[in-house]
Each structure stands twice: as C-alpha cells, then as structure tokens.
Amino acid sequence: xxxxxxxxxxxxxxxxxxxxxxxxxxxxxxxxxxxxxxxxxxxxxxxxxxxxxxxxxxxxxxxxxxxxxxxxxxxxxxxxxxxxxxxxxxxxxxxxxxxxxxxxxxxxxxxxxxxxxxxxxxxxxxxxxxxxxxxxxxxxxxxxxxxxxxxxxxxxxxxxxxxxxxxxxxxxxxxxxxxxxxxxxxxxxxxxxxxxxxxxxxxxxxxxxxxxxxxxxxxxxxxxxxxxxxxxxxxxxxxxxxxxxxxxxxxxxxxxx
Length: 257
Known about the structure:
The strands form 2 sheets. This protein has a 6-stranded mixed sheet, sandwiched between helices. It has a 3-stranded mixed sheet with strand order 5-7-8. Strand 2, helix 1 and strand 3 form a beta-alpha-beta unit. The protein is of the alpha/beta class and 257 residues long. The chain has helices at 28-41, 65-71, 76-94, 112-118, 142-151, 156-162, 168-173, 183-199, 202-215, 223-235, 238-248; strands at 4-9, 12-17, 49-54, 100-104, 107-109, 121-125, 129-131, 166-167, 179-181. The chain has 2 domains: 4-197, Alpha-Beta Complex (2-enoyl-CoA Hydratase, Chain A, domain 1), CATH 3.90.226.10; 200-248.
C-alpha cells in the first residue's frame, strides 16, 4: 500500500496513515486503501483488535488539497459518486466487528473526525487540536455527520456549524476522546486498551460489538429475542464453554497468553 503502513503484532492489526508530507490528508488512494483494509479485516478471525494512528506531526488534516482541486470541475453526479466512496470507507470501519483503538496527535481536522467517530476507543495526546473545518470552505461535514452524531453528545453540533477549534479536553467532553495525556501517557493507555482486548474471548468481543450496533437499529420489542438468543448461542459455543470452564477450574482460557 502507498498511503498506509500495515503490520500485525501479537494478533493486533496496526494501521498507520502514511502521508506525513501532506499531514496524512485523505486522497482517493488512501480512501480506497482504508476501505479495502477494513473490509479485509472483517474476515480475519485471528485478529483481536485494530490499532489506528498517523505518522508524522499530525494524525490527519482532513482532505488533501490536490484531491480537492481535482473535484472543482466535477459534475453533481461525479461529486455524489466520489462522496459515496468516502462514506463507504467510514461504513466499512464502523461495521467492522473488531474493536478499533485510535491514537491521535497534533491535529484532527475535517474528515479525520470521521475516523475518530468510528473508533471504539480514542487516545489523544495533550495539545491535539480538533476542528470540523468544512464550513470554512463553504461545504458541510456531511459525509461524516451520521458517524459523528452516533458517537458524540448533541453539543458537537455547535462545533460542526462554527468550525471552532477545540482541544482534547473538549473532545473528551463531547464523547469523541476517551483518554488524553502526554505522549508517554497516551502511548501507555493505547497499549493498555489493546492488551485488554487481547485478554478477552475474541469471538465474544466481535459478537458484542455487532450486538450493540444492531440494538441501536432495532425496536425495543425485538431486544428480548436478539439478546437472549445471543447469550444462549455463546454459552454453548466452544469459546463460551472454554471460558466458563476456565473460570470454574481457576485456570486461564486458551486464548490468554
């Protein structure tokens, strides 16, 4: 891949945005590579979590200027098709059953906040600046809006319409950031959370994430059948049996190191 660095270490998939010369800004190639990476990870039963970060001085500055220039003369239909590709990238990320842990630093602008919104846990270094910068350009944070609203508090709407820059502390208050600290503190928390995911039953984590996503779209009257059906299924599964027996026998289940 040209825009990403992908590696696997101890059942964790590490994805690093790798366009530091343009502040890891999105272009069509990065969007395609991120989409295919997240879609591919969905089938990987040997991976327990995904770690997302950015190389260089900032996590991601949003859209690449050259990419934006190429769209200036696009027709309405061409713009729609291009935007759909960006939406599909975020959808592939959100619909991934593996947990995603993000580590952000420097700046998180524009579409980068869509990546943050699709992470299950976000660690931010002190001094990181966030901004929904789209309205400054006369456009809207439209593609990322549903993903952001699904995670953030209603107060985020002010920042989406004002383009005011906000801090990692405010990001935490908005529900977009889970932990903020110095570079060393952020790295330690990033590693801590990844370790937690490695300790849990991998299928249980996947099914729980999928369940939580499904419940948000179901009528409450449907919750009983879905939730009781899942716990019954998992109790009799190989992983569930191993986990319960390990607990009763005071030993580690097979998936723990």
